[in-house]
Design brief:
This protein folds into two domains: 77 residues, Beta-grasp domain (Ubiquitin-like (UB roll), Roll), CATH 3.10.20.30; 79 residues, DNA polymerase, domain 1. Helix content is 27%, strand content 15%. A hairpin with a 2-residue loop joins strand 3 and strand 4. It contains five helices and five strands, in the order E-E-H-E-E-E-H-H-H-H.
Length: 182
């Protein structure tokens, strides 16, 4: 019986798209995206911002970490269509023009990378982590949650635990972040 309802079925392979305006590294990009498209794929494949890496594609390694409104997100798990009103910062946007971000300088000075694959995600995560600590957000190892956390090695390791380094440069990564931490 046909009651007048639309019974047209959409083929699952037919994309549903949305026109949005992305703000990435202080630049506006009008773009049409598939509603299933991840931010990582948009950044790498459509905007040619290849700093964020596709490591595990499951949000477990942190190589794809970027900042959205200053907060850390795994771009492989974030749908681009949800970010039309947000400010996205990738590793390419951490520097101030030709002046590297202090974390970038500290990573170089402390030899905090080996192959470099995880480094963009490590840098974005560290920048977000420093902002979280500056705002007074405790971690699971913060001893006194009534004061701003002291960013010692234990605190830094806990806060960076979502970012893996296959080369094992953790000691130098922690040292680099500690150098920049207040």
């Amino acid at each position: 019986m046909n009651d007048g309802a639309d019974t047209t079925r959409r083929d699952a392979s037919t994309p549903i798209t949305a026109d949005i305006r992305l703000s990435v590294n202080r630049t506006e990009y009008p773009i049409t995206v598939d509603t299933r498209e991840t931010l990582l794929d948009t950044l790498r494949e459509r905007l040619d911002l290849i700093g964020a890496k596709k490591g595990c594609d499951h949000g477990q390694c942190g190589a794809c970490t970027v900042l959205v409104n200053g907060r850390r997100v795994k771009s492989c798990l974030t749908l681009t269509v949800t970010l039309g009103e947000e400010e996205i910062t990738t590793v390419e946007g951490l520097a101030d023009g030709d002046t590297p971000h202090p974390l970038q300088t500290a990573f170089v000075e402390n030899d905090a990378f080996q192959c470099g694959y995880c480094t963009p995600g490590q840098l974005c995560s560290a920048a977000g982590m420093l902002a979280e600590a500056a705002a007074g957000w405790p971690s699971v190892v913060t001893e006194d949650v009534s004061t701003s956390p002291r960013l010692d090695g234990r605190e830094i390791r806990e806060r960076m635990n979502g970012n893996l380094c296959r080369c094992g440069a953790y000691v130098n990564i922690v040292a680099a972040i500690a150098e920049v931490a207040p």
